[in-house]
Structures
1.
Amino acid sequence: MYERFFQLERTPFAMVPDPECVYFAGQHADVIGGLVFGVLSRKGYLVLTGEAGLGKTTAVAAMSHLMGESSVQTSLILNPILTGPEFMEMVLLNFGFNKIPASKAQRLKIFQDFLIRSDAEGKVTALVIDEAHKLSAELLEEIRLLGNFEAADHKLLQMVLVGQPELHDRLNLPELWQLKQRIAIRMSLVRMDRETVAQYLIFRWNKAGAAGPIPFTEASIDAIASWSKGIPRLINAICDNALLIAFSEETRTVETRHIREACKELDLPISPIKPRFDSISYAAPQVVPPREPATGKPVQKDAPKPPPNAANNDDTQFLGEEKQSLFKKWLGRGKE
């Protein structure tokens, strides 16, 4: 509704996860890169946790979008509240099976044949389960048993469990100790700080096709960071409503009062905003350099030497050609 007023091509703070609008910097970049690396390297079990609204589903969507251009075939389960037979049926359906036998033994056999055939063709097969903290102990044990499908030197099925911090409690159950032992990579998302919130707003605004700078004042950014508690989903909701309020007033500047009104409409608690240190002017302490006792001249320090081969250092050298291409593409997307 307000997009034309602010000269935008699309909604900047949509609530639906969009892999094209992932903030490829900081922790989200690390998480997406870690997931892609873990799957392509056939690590087996990967776990991603974080509070609700921190962008886990968006990160998974970005991972799937990125790997969709490689040799990875993915089954994504968004609702894991299923029985054992329903779970296996959903896995097979997502991998393109139409005729699914009723027998569990037959289902496992056709799935095993599928994994072996895919591996022989050079394909990586990944099963991604969102909301994994809702999985029953029974289903988690079934997932552990799926990990028994393996070749001589790697797992035939890569499994990514994504959920809220309660997932750790589930994996700490005594009966799931064997599954916990198999987890190769653990990652987590945390809330954004004020600086990251500001960078996130700029990124989303530019992705929406904006011709100018963000309309939020410094004070309103302080309010967004404080009242959203650094949770991306709340940041999107607050900003979307605040832009709508500013549009209704026909003003292209979003101030603190607009943020406050948006929070009230969303029934979010509003607490006093602490001033930032960078808004306080102070005199920097004068540093006196050490001097030579005999001459009184300043001591000359040798410049630090760069590590060997620093100019040629490449964090992707240990990866294969396909993985290097994916990682370099992933790193480049953050600079758009």
Note: Residues 277-287, 303-319 have pLDDT under 50 and may be disordered.
2.
Amino acid sequence: MLHLAPESLGFALDCAAQAVGAVRQGAALPAALHSIFVAQPEGVAAASRGAVQDIAYRTMRRLGTAEWLVARLVRKAPPPHVAHVLACALALLADDESNAAYAPFTVVDQAVNAIGARREYAFAKGLVNAVLRNFLREREALLAEADRDAVARWNYPVWWIDVVRAAWPDAWQAMLAAGNTQGPLTLRVNARRATVDAYLQTLREHQIAATQAGDHAVRLDTPMPVDRIPGFNEGVVSVQDAGAQLAAQWLGVRDGMRVLDACAAPGGKTGHLLELADIDLIALESDATRARRIGENLQRLGLHAQVRVGDAGNPAQWHDAADQPFDRILADVPCSASGIVRRHPDIRWLRRASDIPALVDEQRRILEALWPLVKPGGELLYVTCSIFPEEGELQAQWFGNRHADAVRLDAPGQLLPAVARAPADVSAGSRAGQSTGSSLDHDGFFYARFQKR
């Protein structure tokens, strides 16, 4: 048992350090945090959850800097947990004053308490105290030195930095910086229940500041828990990035259409499609546990789809020979998730360069399997939440060259993270392949739309 008050910063630092250690062992951050919370005595997780999550996510965004500082300030590598506590504390102390969440002396004191509370690491209390105080004394010089190291400056693996720099030579720095910010809380207004204007009025009545961020999108000025968002529990709004909301809009569904949402979990795009038209929709997901989340989200919205469990790349598992072809297919395929790192900062540390060719092959396998299911005159919308060209424009070009009956139509093309404005000519082709450079605050996505002759 960890003898720290669950509401203390020391407790939060210890739990966040456990999460960092789990990520460094290959676990996704949300899963690591969940395991830590459920392992606590009843009530403890609720008291500490917000602070633990905040520190863990801050550390993921500054992990390159924090680990560089640990290596620079500690002569002999400490035990992993001690190093991870130091990394969490240094990530907080390295924040500039406008972003600082805690007073420096509090961070030092509570990091020492966190180490001292664990008997097996109590010997390292003096080390932690000395390292953090040394950092504060030499903070500016150390951070300036860290800026000369690519990983410490940008907080991404070297291979990731190299790929982004090569793909987007005019925007790579802004793109990397965008991934180190916290994304806004954007809502999708259920078109069956309200308009954006009406919902903005509801928010004003609750004294919640917000602005319109798309045809059905509203961005809150200040994030808040979903149970405090007016109308969320009643299905009036859902949480969905403004860039992700373009999928349902560009698929162009109309009443009476037969539609497949492939790789559908957790069901955000499924719900949006059903909000826009009365359609016969199959929501497909390969993972049974994740497929259940589709049903849960649709239940909140008061909507219905056929939820099927199966591999989108193997229609024999879920598509009967007697089934009719589809008017529209949304192929939101597995990808690197490189476009959503500001919301999932652990992704950069979990991905490997070798993952990208494997993902490209998987995307092609799924596209090849789905294309025969599109009826003549029907459309397939290819979507990834990636900023890597191999998963975006190059993949779309491969598909168009491979299928003579595929006509490429207008679509957003490559959406870069909103903080990183794209030059007007970053993509090949005219309207079919262009980058939008949108003024909306969104994550990074790629969209390509094909019609079957």
Note: The mean pLDDT is 93.
3.
Amino acid sequence: MGGKFKTSYKGDMALFQTLWVKVWLGILAAAIVVCPQFLSTYQISILNEMAIAIIGALGLNLLIGYTGQISLGHGAFLAIGAYTTALAAGELNLPFIVTLPLSGFMAALLGMVVGVPALRLKGLYLALGTLAFGFIVDYILFHWDLTQGDMGMAVNPVQIGSWSVQTEKEFFYFIACFAALATLCAKNIARSKIGRNFIAIRDRDIAAEAMGISLAKYKIMAFGLSSFYAGIAGALVAHYQKWIVPGSFDLSLSIAYIAMIILGGLGTVLGSILGAILITGIPHGIIYATDVAKESYPALSGLIVDFKLGIFGLIVVLALLFEPQGLAGIYRRAKVYWKTWPFKY
């Protein structure tokens, strides 16, 4: 009935298993190259925010979606990446090709440090532990003289050799390359031995340990990988915004990333991408609705502004009620329906 059967392990583990997938990826790549030529600067800036959010969401999904370790400190790791690249570039005059991986490794190192005490914590206790780490980072950023507190820090523009990234369009192509590489790496991690061990720990950690899987090793590894992704995303945010303040990396940012992976679909790479696009796009959609309503219904426009946060929360709640598996679940059902039509199984 149109099923895909593999005759070898290599075929079953192939990254792009069908011609159909390769064609759609080619179309997507072409769209990424062509579309910015027809978009305004503001629209391209939205795409830039989405691309950075995708990187951060992929890292958090590796930790929560694949390994089952709840974290409320993801925003803190983005802050670590952002301030590492700002200090390394500003104070030490290091080039971007050094500061970017340095930001990721610094966040990964601290992430693994957080992962050690987290080995004895589960569920809400683990969430509170990571939340406490986020508060510690927030306090340090506000009170450490080197980070200039709430005054913020300027960040040097991205420069590689004699080439520098200046316009929104250049930033889009630049960040899109990192988002594509991050997606490819996350996909390979998920289907590797590491990813399978993550899933085993998430589903039943006692059984995983009985099978010989080291819980300590892979839980710490999950924290390290997730934090590395967050550090890279934070560094890109810093270079993109050119000015960073501690308030940009507070608890609300961590909650936004959790909303991304839940609405997109836990434990899926596609869900991370779709969720990042949705959560990043909703505030801009509300702003657009406000501008449209302002012309014809000024009173309604003011109401939308007053209840902006409530509208955002309502969209999240309704999405969870009607589609608990997220956008990736909708995609899977649509895919099965298309393959089995006109039959229903």
Note: The two ends are 11 Å apart (CA to CA).
4.
Amino acid sequence: MSTVNKDLKHFVVHGSSLESPLEHQNDYLTPNDRFFVCNSGSTPTLTIQNYTLRIWGDGVEHEISLSFEDIVALPHKSVPAIIECAGNHRAFFRDVDGHTIETPSGTAELIWSTGAIGMAMWTGVRLADVLALAQVHPSAVQVCAQGSETDSLEGHVRMAMPLSKAMDENTLLAIAMNGEPLPADHGYPVRVLVPGWIGAYSVKWVQDIEVSKSPIWVKRNTTSYVMKGDAWPADEYAPSMGKPLSVQNIKSALALPYPANLETGAHRLHGYARSPGYAIASVEWSCDNGVSWADASLSQDNEPYGWVRFEFDWKAAPGSHHIMTRATDDSGQSQPDNVTFNTAGYLYNAVYPHPIQVR
């Protein structure tokens, strides 16, 4: 993997992936050069001059090939949205709950803490508008995007999603990130953006999209991004080896190192909460192991596919402490006290104790 404009002092390196610790996040949007990176292969070198996008399959009336200019000529739309890896927070399955995380064969250990997430303003064109140019057949059911990298364990990265999600007005072919052309590590010149779903669906460097009248099974929805374990018997999800992942879940996290060290005295602590498709209604915090809870204040930026910054004041006394945070969205859904373990450590969103040592 090659990185572009990355100051590695702001990242934790996991093999070919870069985690952006949440304590570096202060504003609503994550700067492009501090956005986490999770690539399955080397970053390909593409240009807008040689870029083409193929739309094909038995789910469209005719195959088409679009240039970059053809794509950007369509109406533009901007969507504020996070992209979050399905394995973000997986370290807490190990460090809090005591489980052993399986690392896929041939890959580096990737035990994300809270930094496999970033928030950006994405600008591009609706995927629905692009697919319409090929005339989607009424019987089509799935859309599968393919990236341009060639040296990942799966060759070209491919990920299939239901046609309904592909046609959602907020699902984009993104060409810009925070008002700038996509950086190379984030999909230049075109990537898919699937708000609210795990990051694996937001395929980078997309150059091929298949539309199908039948389900499409690929490595990512049969083995890589599936819930495995006793609670998800493979025979119930065949041909997948477990329950395929799609939608993210509600979470909150403090923007502090884990564990953190603070000085004695008053502190204004902050963090970020999100719930896919919903604004956050409240964030509560506790410093007595959940015996009592107090409300944190929320910022005005609180988008359904983004996150919200929360803040509260804490007077730190010397010693060892644990602070817990709990988010509730405007549908009434809250973070659970515990979650069922899956072998890859996906979608951990339990309320967890954040250790803080006060000097």
Note: DSSP finds five helices and 23 strands in the chain.
